[in-house]
C-alpha cells in the first residue's frame, strides 16, 4: 500500500474512493437494516392481527352457542320448568320444587346438567359461570377446570361475584321470558366467558407485550412485564391512534397496533419494543453488518490492487528506462509532459528513443550473427560424422556387391552431400524428407533385403520451413542402437499429419527397445527442456529444433508395444507461422 500512497496522483484518489465506499456501504447497510426492521415490525403487526382474529372467532363461537342454548331452552318445556324451579330459590327450595313438578311418566330434566354438557363442554369450554337473576338476587352455577360444578344461591345482585370486569371475562346478558307470554320476563341469564381461557389461545404467539382493554378502561394483560406494560397500554389507549410509534425512554421507542372489537366492547393492543426486537434479531443484523463490511473491504482491496498495479507499472517504467538505454527494451510511445510522475516518463521515453537509434543496429545484428554461427557449428558437427559412416557403407557394399551397386551408392552419396553442403540452412520439410530418403537408399545398399522404409506424410506438412538435416540423425540412431543385422525384416516408418493446433511427425522402427530406466531419464530431461541424451546426433537435433521453433516445439520418445522405438516431434501451428513470417521478412 505504501507504494502508491507515496505517489501524489494516487494518494488523493485512494482517499476519495475510500470515503465514497464507506459512505455508500454505511448507507446501504442502514437502508437494509431499516427494510428488515420494517419487515419485522410488519410481521409483528400481522401476528397481532392473527391473534385478535382468533380471539374474535372464539368469542363469536361462544356467543353463537349461547344463542343456540336459549333456543334450546324455549323449545323444551321441561327445561323451562326446571329453570323456574332454580330461579329465586335456595338449594333446598330448588330440589323441593323439582320434585313437586315432576311426573312419573317423564324423565326429570336438570337445568345445570344441561348447561354443563351443552355450554361448558363438560367444564372444558370458555364459559365458566352462568347465573340466573331476579331483580334483587341471583343463583350461580360455576364450572372449574376439572369439570366440577359448584352452586351459589340467592346472592345479592351487588355481590362481588357479579361484578363485570375484563379480568374475569366477558358477560353475555340474555332475558328469560315466559314461553306462554313473551312480554312477561321471568329473569335474566348472565353467561361469563373466562378471559383466561379466551386469551390462553394467543399467549403462545410471538407477542412481546399485549393486553385486552375494556371500554371502561380495565386492562387484562396477555403478555408483558406487569405494571410497566399496563401503564404503556393506558398511554396507547389515551393516544387514540390505531398504530404508530411511542417513545418509551430517552432513546427507546415502541411500535403499537390496536384492534377495536365492535361486537364485544374491548380493544386488543399489541406492543413491540424496538430495542428488544433488535436484540432478538441481533444475529441477522450482525450478518448484514458483516456482509456490508466484507463488501466494503473487497471494494477497497480492489481499489488498492488497481492503484498499486498502476503505481508499480509506473515504477517499472521508470526503472526500465535505464535498461532501454542499453538497447535491452523495445521502444514505447512517449506521453505528454506533465508536472508529475507521468512527465518524468515522457521525458525519459524521449531519451530512450534516441538511445535506441544508436544501439538497435549493433546489438540486434550482433545477436543475429551469433545465432547463425551457433547453427553452423551444430551442423558442422554432424556432417563429417555422417560422411565417414556413409563411406564405410560404400566400402562394405563394394566388397560384397557388383560395381553397379557401388556406382549407385556413390551417385546417391554425391547427391546427398551436395544437398548437405548447400548454403541454405532453412529448407522445406519436403526437401528434408528427400535428404532422409537418399540416406535410407544408401542403407538399403548396405543391408539388401533386410531393411525397408516407408513414408506416410500428408501434403500439408511438406511446405513447412525447417532446419536442414535433422531427420537423418534420428534414423541413424535406429541403425546404431536398434537394428538387427541377422533379422530379415528391419522397418523404419515416417508418418506425418496435421491436427487442429499442430503438426505431428513420427519416426517409428521395429528394432531394440530402450530400457525403462534410460527412457525415464530421457523423459525427465525433455520435460525440463534439457538436452535429452549424451549422443551428439540426438542432442544436436533437439538443440537445433528448439532453437529454430522455440517453445512451439516438443519431442517425445516412447517404446512401441511389440518392438522398437517411436520418436514424436510436435510443431505448433503458431510456431510454424512465426517462422514463415520471419522468412518472408
Write the layout of secondary structure elements.
Layout: H1 2-5, H2 8-74, H3 77-86, H4 91-100, H5 111-118, E1 127-133, E2 137-143, E3 149-156, E4 169-178, E5 181-194, H6 195-200, E6 209-214, E7 219-223, H7 227-239, E8 243-247, E9 253-261, E10 266-273, H8 274-280, H9 282-324, H10 341-400, H11 403-421, E11 426-428, H12 429-446, E12 451-457, E13 465-467, H13 471-482, E14 490-498, E15 502-509, H14 516-528, H15 536-549, E16 553-559, E17 565-572, H16 573-584
Q: How would you explain this protein's 3D organization?
A:
It is a single chain. This protein is α+β, with helices and mostly antiparallel strands and 585 residues long. The chain has three domains: 1-75 and 282-324; 76-200, no CATH class; 362-584, Histidine kinase-like ATPase, C-terminal domain (Heat Shock Protein 90, 2-Layer Sandwich), CATH 3.30.565. Helix content is 54%, strand content 21%. The protein has 16 helices and 17 strands. The chain has helices at residues 2-5, 8-74, 77-86, 91-100, 111-118, 195-200, 227-239, 274-280, 282-324, 341-400, 403-421, 429-446, 471-482, 516-528, 536-549, 573-584; strands at 127-133, 137-143, 149-156, 169-178, 181-194, 209-214, 219-223, 243-247, 253-261, 266-273, 426-428, 451-457, 465-467, 490-498, 502-509, 553-559, 565-572. Strands 3-2-1-5-4 form a five-stranded antiparallel β-sheet. Strands 7-6-10-9-8 form a five-stranded antiparallel β-sheet, sandwiched between helices. The chain has a five-stranded mixed β-sheet with strand order 12-14-15-17-16. Helix 3 (77-86) packs antiparallel against helix 4 (91-100). The protein starts with a helix and ends with a helix.
Amino acid at each position: 500500500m505504501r507504494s502508491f500512497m507515496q505517489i501524489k496522483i494516487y494518494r488523493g484518489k485512494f482517499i476519495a474512493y475510500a470515503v465514497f465506499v464507506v459512505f455508500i456501504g454505511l448507507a446501504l447497510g442502514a437502508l437494509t437494516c431499516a427494510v428488515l426492521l420494517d419487515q419485522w415490525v410488519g410481521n409483528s403487526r400481522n401476528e397481532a392481527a392473527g391473534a385478535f382474529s382468533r380471539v374474535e372467532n372464539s368469542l363469536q363461537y361462544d356467543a353463537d352457542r349461547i344463542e343456540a342454548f336459549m333456543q334450546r331452552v324455549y323449545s323444551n318445556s321441561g327445561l323451562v320448568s326446571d329453570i323456574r324451579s332454580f330461579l329465586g330459590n335456595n338449594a333446598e327450595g330448588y330440589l323441593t320444587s323439582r320434585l313437586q313438578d315432576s311426573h312419573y311418566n317423564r324423565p326429570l330434566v336438570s337445568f345445570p346438567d344441561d348447561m354443563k354438557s351443552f355450554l361448558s363442554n363438560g367444564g372444558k369450554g370458555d364459559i365458566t359461570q352462568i347465573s340466573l337473576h331476579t331483580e334483587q338476587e341471583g343463583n350461580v352455577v360455576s364450572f372449574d377446570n376439572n369439570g366440577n360444578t359448584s352452586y351459589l344461591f340467592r346472592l345479592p345482585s351487588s355481590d362481588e361475584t357479579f361484578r363485570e370486569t375484563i379480568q374475569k371475562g366477558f358477560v353475555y346478558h340474555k332475558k328469560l321470558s315466559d314461553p306462554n307470554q313473551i312480554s312477561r320476563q321471568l329473569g335474566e341469564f348472565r353467561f361469563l366467558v373466562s378471559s383466561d381461557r379466551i386469551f390462553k389461545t394467543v399467549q403462545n404467539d410471538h407477542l412481546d407485550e399485549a393486553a385486552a382493554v375494556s371500554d371502561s378502561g380495565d386492562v387484562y394483560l396477555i403478555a408483558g412485564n406487569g405494571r410497566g406494560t399496563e401503564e404503556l397500554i393506558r398511554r396507547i389507549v389515551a393516544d387514540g391512534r390505531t398504530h404508530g410509534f411511542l417513545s418509551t425512554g430517552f432513546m427507546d421507542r415502541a411500535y403499537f397496533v390496536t384492534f377495536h372489537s365492535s361486537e364485544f366492547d374491548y380493544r386488543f393492543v399489541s406492543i413491540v419494543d424496538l430495542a428488544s426486537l433488535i436484540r432478538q434479531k441481533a444475529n441477522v443484523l450482525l450478518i448484514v453488518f458483516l456482509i456490508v463490511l466484507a463488501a466494503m473491504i473487497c471494494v477497497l482491496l480492489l481499489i488498492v490492487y488497481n492503484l498499486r498495479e498502476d503505481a508499480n507499472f509506473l515504477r517499472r517504467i521508470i526503472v526500465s528506462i535505464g535498461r532501454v538505454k542499453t538497447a535491452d527494451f523495445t521502444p514505447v510511445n512517449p506521453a505528454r509532459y506533465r508536472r508529475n510522475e507521468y512527465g518524468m516518463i515522457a521525458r525519459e521515453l524521449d531519451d530512450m528513443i534516441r538511445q535506441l537509434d544508436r544501439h538497435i543496429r549493433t546489438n540486434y545484428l550482433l545477436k543475429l550473427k551469433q545465432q547463425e554461427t551457433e547453427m553452423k557449428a551444430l551442423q558442422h558437427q554432424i556432417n563429417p560424422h555422417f560422411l565417414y559412416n556413409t563411406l564405410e557403407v560404400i566400402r562394405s557394399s563394394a566388397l560384397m556387391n557388383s560395381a553397379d551397386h557401388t556406382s549407385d551408392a556413390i551417385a546417391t552419396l554425391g547427391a546427398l552431400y551436395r544437398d548437405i553442403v548447400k548454403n541454405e540452412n532453412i529448407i522445406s520439410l519436403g526437401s528434408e524428407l528427400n535428404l532422409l530418403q537418399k540416406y535410407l537408399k544408401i542403407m538399403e545398399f548396405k543391408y539388401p533385403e533386410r531393411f525397408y522404409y516407408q513414408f506416410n506424410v500428408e501434403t500439408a506438412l511438406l511446405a513447412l520451413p525447417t532446419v536442414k538435416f535433422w531427420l537423418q540423425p534420428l534414423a541413424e540412431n535406429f541403425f546404431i542402437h536398434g537394428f538387427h543385422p541377422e533379422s530379415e525384416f528391419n522397418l523404419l516408418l515416417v508418418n506425418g499429419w496435421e491436427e487442429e493446433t499442430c503438426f505431428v511427425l513420427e519416426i517409428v522402427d521395429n528394432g531394440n527397445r530402450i530400457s525403462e530406466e534410460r527412457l525415464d531419464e530421457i523423459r525427465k530431461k525433455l520435460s525440463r527442456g534439457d538436452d535429452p541424451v549424451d549422443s551428439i546426433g540426438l542432442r544436436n537435433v533437439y538443440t537445433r529444433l528448439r532453437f529454430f521453433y522455440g517453445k512451439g516445439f516438443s519431442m517425445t520418445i516412447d517404446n512401441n508395444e511389440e518392438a522398437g522405438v517411436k520418436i514424436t516431434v510436435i510443431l505448433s501451428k503458431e510456431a510454424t507461422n512465426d517462422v514463415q513470417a520471419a522468412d518472408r521478412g
